[in-house]
Amino acid sequence: MADSQDLFDDVFVIPPRPPSPCTKITARNSTHSRLLMLPDEIRLDIYLRCLVSSLPIVVWSAQEKSLSDDSIPLKSPRLIRNPEARASDICRVLITLLRSCRSLAADAACIFYSENTFVFSGRHRYYRIIAWLDAIGQRNRDNLSALEISVRRPPKAWQLPDGTRLKARVQDVQEFSPRHPHFSGPSPISPEGEVDVINPAIETIISFFARPGGVPKIKLVLQLSYGTVPGMEFIDFGFQEGTLFTMDLPNLIEKWRADYTFGSMEVLWRGELPEKLLTRDEGEIKGLGWEILDEENIQRPWFLHFRPRPDPSRTMPSSRQFLLKRKELTGSLVAATTSPMSAKGREAYTH
Predict the structure, then answer these.
(1) CA–CA distance, 276 with 319 (Å, rounded to integer)
(2) What is the value of pTM for the model shown?
């Protein structure tokens, strides 16, 4: 976490203050502060106008910057922050209210964290989310009502028949972990092949929201990359072969949601596909265990997501955004089958 210190100095990190021995100052503020002397409903309206953003607040936004040729993967790619996105969000709220006297700060923090949506977008490391959730403290975490996180296809490992794994030669050690103990193998003896590596930091993030009964529900929205539906592979529409995003991560997240949050968390998956493709495969998507909650047509040709772009003179379908929810799990978790026909093959992996 050497480069995560900036999170703790960020305007979005407002940790709850410890109890103050300055009882005289607190008492004086309650009788002399014009804001605190206002009726509760007027003060609440002021907080809502000052602290609620009309757009999601971006806590972290970054893109990956390659330092070499695209054909040579980097062991530790650089993530370049996008401070402009964050600055444009925070200018819409009066964040200084959270740094005022303790009485005002406590009321303002409750509104700030409960009424806004906080976003981690682009290429990010999950430890940044953990650092932020830890920094804001338990009280503010309990007030959170909406969190959005960009989720990319998990990195791959080569799994042997006995369940042990080989990591990719160019893989970041932070992105490699053994099969989660919740999973049983697809069969007593599985063929070796590629599998998704699930970052254990994701379980840590969900465990932060282990809430007792009566605590308000939080909505966690996981933003998928374009053309991605876990469990599906759309090779016929120009997507790269061998990029299957298996159901392992959605299944584990649903298991963690049920085990840790006792129903106080709702997990939704948002994505975008060519309209024709989503219509064609809707039944198969539902058969994987997904509920399709919402769909919305987007007037943006799907080929704009690709480099190089296809011939713009061709007739291309528009995109459709969708919102998925994993159905509740029944029975034990079974890991996705290995992919022995990987384009990279076992030679791309090592102990």
Answers:
(1) 8
(2) 0.79
Residue 339 DSSP code: B
Pick the closest to residue 122 from 61, 208, 80 (CA basis).
Answer: 61
Residues sharing a CB contact under 8 Å with residue 38, sequence separation 6 or more, in sequence order? 46
CA distance readout (Å), 232 to 227, 229, 241, 261, 300: 10, 6, 12, 28, 22
Distance CA 207, CA 256 (A): 8
Read off the tokens for 16: 């709850």
pLDDT tens, position by position, 292-342: 998 776 655 544 454 445 555 555 557 889 999 999 998 888 888 877 655
Looking only at the bridges linking them, the beta strands covering 165-168 and 290-301 are unpaired
Where do the H-state alpha helices sit in 144-222? 201-207
Which residue's entry shows tokens 């920094």? 135
Identify whether the C-beta of residue 95 lies closer than 8 Å to the C-beta of residue 11. yes
Model confidence pLDDT, tens digit, residues 252-266 = 999 999 999 888 899
3-state secondary structure of 301: strand
